[in-house]
Design a protein that fits this description.
A: alpha+beta, 13 helices, 30% helix, B: 418 residues, seven-stranded mixed beta sheet, five-stranded parallel beta sheet
């Protein structure tokens, strides 16, 4: 019997799993997809918010400022990629300027740090490509950017190293409360656990309803994005928000942790939770809105557009806590600033478990660190030379655009979580993330996965079940001795 | 540090030809660096025939064509390193590269030839919207899977774009038992060679749908279909024409882009029209001692011309190493009405033997037209064809003696009605 079963391997599930791995507990994460961070977490803006935006008095406001403060140490321990770039909220006219004051005040109440209102000229000194029409900006020096999926992977790998089990392709179809514990009926058989934590993101309402707790709904709210080539990094290295207008936050222009530029998202409620299609009218709107902040958006430099759905609830705030069903904890409705809040939410969930009576004994063997990747793209000559001498696979470049070596890919495969997809490698190493979008490296990445895991080429998917890449051998006849029919 | 007279970056048809020509012109210490496991470049996956008609007067497959050059290289003292990735070159022409076998290398070169080829435009680049399932491949990736790795990437295919690789792959996938439903082309004309339209589509009853595009990809895990549409003269999809086609695979053949990351990082200017470095008549770039040839300069339609350009750069290298390369150009070239780009961008006449070949592409289909070269209002030369197509590169040769009679300045190329 497990002490804790966490449903969902997004950033919330992985953050909680890592927090609980500090203790002597038997914990398993069940995830229906082939990897962590495959849905909402994957298509996130990647902003570590300053904590001034979410309303004071709400859980969002409370956790975002706290979460922000945890990032520098988390990065030191786990090496997932975090840069404190600072952020602007820009006003384009006097009418919008009071919004900046409101945010400043709200931020101070939330405990946000590094806030300051500056003139448009001062902002342009910091980011010369910022639009001339910006009159004032709220600057926040503690805001930053991270890679949401690399964070989740790092949290999960570190949790796995400290004893948490990760079970992929495991969909929960029903939950039974039996005396003092739960039986989760999953696609991989029953799982028994004393405590269930529902971190199922877009599907958290369904999971909650399985034990009769159906007092909230998750309404998917779509966000579409475009990603620009790294050679556009000059546009800005500060996160740029627009002052809220008519309740809408406006479009964001931000550097990513890897120095691409991301523009988006829109925010539209949609019907289907798994509808992540992009649409040309929305993409056009985003690009237009983004060019309000920065004039230099070059649409010929788009390397990818994508879409993700926020797990918004009808409560307007995070839903965190034990339900009326003892031992069942909801961590639901985690929309923005959920990524920022995740590490703080994880600690809070551990506290909830303690209050529920679960014994949390510190594990003396807990290791908070995860070894960083050896990124050849970041290395100086001598270091590179020594590394290749020791491990020749680091001298073979597989992904040209991002300079990712075979050594990095092999490393990614052997870090404790099962790897079965090309996207899993992309999330961990960036192979296929560049301007050619995997055109050159996908076949070679597949060969390496096949060699290292024993999966056949046909078994390797793009992104989990059904997303096969190859249908059959094309040279069957030849291999059977050339006896063509 | 390793020292060479010439380092060639890229061992495809352009690089091989450049090295062979430089060798023939007396350059002895030559090194070719190739990132793939074998020499030959993208030709290795082009197992169809039709290569070499101009150069060898016979129809070869891609690997046969590259083998001719690989054999020529083997007969020389030219050295080659495969599975070797060039990271950058410095201002002093130190080439930095890595390989699993040799580790990190710094190679001092007196001259460098860029021959890194090109890459395919992707779904992101053309802003193809809809779901993002598995099963959307560039035509070249599919070609590699089938021809080199031995796997089929799908059974029922819609191809977007009528570039040559897409056309070749329509036939190739048909051979392997797949059903190609249609080739959609945004433009009112094909972007592939006429012979490929005939031999790859017409012969297999694969419809070419001109002025059509894919407006949406369907499928959560794997492609399940696409919605296609006819486009109006502004390339806007016409809603009444939307039509769904079921398929499990989308191949993209929507253009090629020269791979000039190393070029740009070295601070060498790239021409926005070609997306390749600006070059002179012997393919010298703006950086002294650095030459470029093949698809890294501009995307060619036939490999024969790639080899020709490679040879030009090899000549240039030899001249440069002997100190005989004149640097100040006499002429610059300009593309006027109807012409997309012209290569070379500059000409120095004293480096020219008997004629200069200007490569260019027209912007759309022209019947009963002629391409003319002017200096000011003076007509210098003209080139006739039955038809000019954007897919077919125009080779416009002008004799040295004609150019020698002109004052220095700009040569302008233009498409005019006959």
């Amino acid at each position: 019997m497990l002490d804790v079963c966490i449903v969902g391997g997004g950033v919330i599930g992985t953050a909680i799993s890592r927090e609980l791995s500090r203790y002597q507990l038997k914990v398993r994460v069940v995830e229906r997809n082939e990897d962590v961070a495959t849905e909402t977490t994957k298509a996130n803006s990647g902003i570590v918010h300053g904590g001034y935006d979410a309303a004071h008095g709400k859980l969002k406001g409370f956790f975002s400022a706290k979460g922000n403060a945890m990032y520098p140490q988390l990065e030191e321990e786990l090496h997932f990629g975090f840069r404190q770039t600072g952020s602007f909220v820009v006003a384009f006219n006097e009418g919008q300027e009071p919004e900046l004051d409101r945010l400043l005040e709200n931020g101070i109440k939330n405990g946000a740090r590094g806030l300051e209102i500056i003139s448009g000229d001062r902002a342009r000194e910091m980011e010369p490509h910022l639009s001339k029409s910006v009159t004032k900006a709220l600057y926040c020096s503690t805001a930053g950017v991270t890679s949401p999926y690399e964070l989740s992977v790092a949290l999960a790998e570190n949790a796995a190293k400290n004893g948490v089990e990760y079970s992929f392709y495991t969909e929960v179809n029903g939950i039974e409360k039996v005396e003092d514990h739960f039986i989760l009926h999953t696609s991989k058989g029953p799982v028994e656990a004393k405590v269930v934590i529902n971190a199922a993101g877009l599907y958290a309402d369904r999971i909650s309803a399985m034990i009769g707790e159906d007092d909230f709904t998750i309404n998917p709210r779509q966000g579409q994005y475009v990603l620009l080539d790294k050679d556009q990094a000059f546009m800005t290295d500060t996160v740029i928000f627009q002052a809220p207008e008519n309740g809408s936050k406006g479009v964001l222009v931000t550097p990513t942790v890897h120095h691409n530029i991301l523009v988006g998202p829109n925010s539209d409620y949609i019907d289907e939770k798994n509808d992540v299609a992009t649409t040309s009218d929305v993409i056009a709107k985003i690009l237009k809105a983004g060019s309000k902040s920065i004039d230099a958006i070059n649409t010929r430099k788009v390397i990818r557009s994508f879409s993700g759905n926020r797990a918004s609830s009808d409560r307007g705030d995070f839903i965190i806590g034990e339900t009326k069903v003892k031992g069942f904890v909801n961590v639901a409705g985690i929309e923005s600033p959920g990524l920022t809040s995740a590490p703080a939410i994880a600690i809070h969930v551990a506290d909830i478990l303690k209050e529920m009576g679960l014994e949390l004994t510190a594990d003396p063997n807990f290791d908070p660190t995860r070894k960083p990747y050896k990124r050849i793209a970041d290395m100086e000559a001598e270091e590179l030379n020594n590394l290749i001498a020791e491990e020749p696979a680091y001298g073979r470049v597989i992904c040209r655009c991002e300079s990712i070596s075979e050594g990095e890919i092999v490393d990614a495969i052997h870090r404790g979580l099962p790897i079965t997809s090309v996207d899993a490698i992309k999330k961990r190493t960036r192979a296929g993330m560049g301007r050619c979008q995997g055109g050159f490296c996908a076949p070679r990445v597949m060969e390496i996965i096949s060699r290292e895991t024993g999966l056949s080429m046909e078994e390797i998917t793009k992104q989990g079940e059904g997303s096969y890449l190859l249908t059959k051998r094309s040279k069957d006849a030849l291999e059977k001795g050339g006896q063509d029919a | 540090m390793l020292k060479y007279e010439l380092v060639v970056i890229g061992g495809g048809p352009a690089g091989l030809s450049a090295a062979v020509e430089a060798y023939e012109q007396g350059v002895r210490k030559i090194l070719i660096l190739e990132r793939d496991k074998e020499l030959g470049g993208i030709l290795n996956q082009c197992i169809h025939n039709g290569f070499g008609l101009h150069r060898f007067k016979e129809e070869l497959t891609g690997p046969e064509y590259s083998l001719r050059y690989i054999d020529l290289v083997k007969d020389t003292t030219i050295e080659t390193l495969t599975d070797t990735m060039v990271l950058e070159i410095s201002e002093q022409k130190v080439v930095r590269a890595i390989s699993a076998e040799r580790g990190y290398m710094e190679i001092e070169a007196k001259a460098v030839v860029f021959s890194m080829g090109c890459r395919e435009r992707t779904r992101g680049a053309i802003q193809l919207q809809g779901d993002r399932p598995a099963g959307v491949f560039t035509a070249g990736t599919a070609q590699r899977f089938i021809n080199m790795e031995g796997y089929m990437p799908g059974k029922r295919v819609v191809i977007l774009g009528s570039g040559d690789i897409g056309l070749i792959m329509a036939r190739r996938m048909t051979f392997e038992g797949a059903k190609v439903e249609a080739v959609c082309e945004l433009m009112p004309y094909s972007n592939g060679l006429t012979r490929n339209i005939v031999q790859c589509l017409d012969d297999y009853d694969i419809p070419l749908m001109l002025s059509h595009t894919i407006v949406k990809v369907h499928g959560k895990a794997r492609v399940e279909g696409v919605t296609i549409a006819k486009v109006d003269e502004n390339f806007k999809p016409i809603p009444e024409s939307f039509k769904r086609i079921d398929c499990d695979t989308v191949l993209l053949s929507v253009g090629l882009i020269p791979e000039n990351e190393i070029t740009q990082n070295a601070g060498i200017a790239v021409d926005t029209r070609t997306s390749g470095p600006k070059v002179g008549e012997l393919r010298q770039t703006e950086m002294e001692g650095v030459f470029a040839c093949g698809n890294v300069v501009h995307v060619h339609d036939l490999v024969d011309f790639v080899s020709e350009e490679g040879a030009l750069s090899g000549k240039g290298v030899a001249k440069y190493l002997k100190g005989e390369l004149e640097t100040t150009p006499n002429f610059s070239t300009a593309n006027s009405d109807g012409i997309g780009y012209v290569v070379p961008q500059t000409v120095n006449l004293s480096n020219v033997d008997d004629q200069v070949t200007f490569y260019m592409r027209v912007r759309s289909v022209y019947d009963k037209h002629i391409v003319r070269a002017y200096q000011g209002d003076t007509l210098i030369a003209e080139k006739k064809e039955r038809k000019f197509l954007p897919a077919e590169m125009v080779n416009f040769k002008i004799k040295k003696e004609i150019l020698a009679n002109l004052a220095d300045g700009e040569i302008r190329f233009v498409v005019e009605e006959v």
